[in-house]
């Protein structure tokens, strides 16, 4: 008995990802995921990191949000979009989502070998406060949260909107945990002073 991959593909690539131009939004995020995972090997040596059990405080909402964000959840539930933006609105959303991703990539490239998918203290770790890190303390989260919220609203499904909100909350929680960790590791005088000077995630807001 042979396995029918077309059925699996129809489940994974269905719902809002099958119609143009909303399909464009899916392609934007697939391109991001492929490039992000591909670059995950470029990072420095880890000196210390947050325990796995403790990291579930941010991993869980991101995981649940990611599941809700997939097209097959709304398809399975039979839910329809709350609104339809039209082709022009979707194209604008795609550009804004790509801009958020580009900002996140700027942050990752500027961070260089100090980047990690988890909360870690890298060898020779120091406070980076230039480039995008002079605008916000977590430019990667800023860009991804912005892009995810724009995409979720553009799709107009309750599941994508809730998914974007949960992912955003998870990233905010991760950012908070990261700051407590780095303040201890790099010193309150260094990282704490940086936190008091630069906004966390939303540009131009008061720090902290």
Query: What share of the residues lie within helices?
Result: 55-70%
**Class from secondary-structure proportions:** mainly alpha
| Mean residue pLDDT | 86
Radius of gyration: 19 Å
Shape: elongated
**Helix and strand sequence:** HHEHHHEHHH
Enter the CATH topology name of the domain at 56-114 and 126-202. Answer: Four Helix Bundle (Hemerythrin (Met), subunit A)
Q: For this entry, what is the oligomeric state of its chains?
A: single chain
**Numbering strands along the chain, what is their spatial order in the largest sheet?**
1-2
Largest sheet: 2 strands, antiparallel
* End-to-end C-alpha gap: 59 Å
Can you tell me the CATH architecture of the domain at 56-114 and 126-202? Up-down Bundle
Uncertain segments: 1-11
The number of helical elements comes to 8
Beta content comes to under 5%
What would CATH call the class of the domain at 56-114 and 126-202? Mainly Alpha
Count of DSSP E strands? 2
């Amino acid at each position: 008995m042979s396995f029918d991959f077309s059925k699996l593909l129809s489940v994974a690539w269905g719902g809002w990802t099958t119609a143009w131009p909303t399909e464009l939004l899916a392609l934007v995020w697939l391109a991001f995921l492929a490039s992000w995972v591909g670059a995950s090997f470029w990072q420095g040596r880890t000196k210390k990191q947050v325990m796995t059990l403790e990291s579930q405080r941010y991993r869980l909402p991101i995981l649940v949000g990611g599941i809700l964000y997939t097209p097959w959840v709304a398809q399975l539930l039979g839910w329809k979009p709350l609104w339809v933006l039209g082709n022009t609105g979707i194209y604008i959303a795609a550009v804004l989502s790509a801009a958020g991703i580009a900002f996140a990539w700027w942050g990752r490239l500027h961070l260089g070998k100090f980047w990690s998918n988890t909360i870690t203290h890298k060898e020779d770790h120091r406070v980076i406060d230039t480039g995008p890190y002079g605008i916000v303390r977590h430019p990667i989260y800023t860009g991804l949260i912005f892009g995810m919220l724009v995409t979720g609203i553009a799709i107009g499904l309750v599941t994508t909107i809730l998914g974007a909100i949960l992912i955003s909350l998870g990233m905010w929680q991760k950012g908070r945990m990261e700051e407590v960790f780095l303040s201890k590791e790099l010193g309150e005088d260094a990282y704490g002073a940086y936190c008091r000077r630069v906004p966390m995630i939303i540009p131009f807001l008061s720090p902290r």
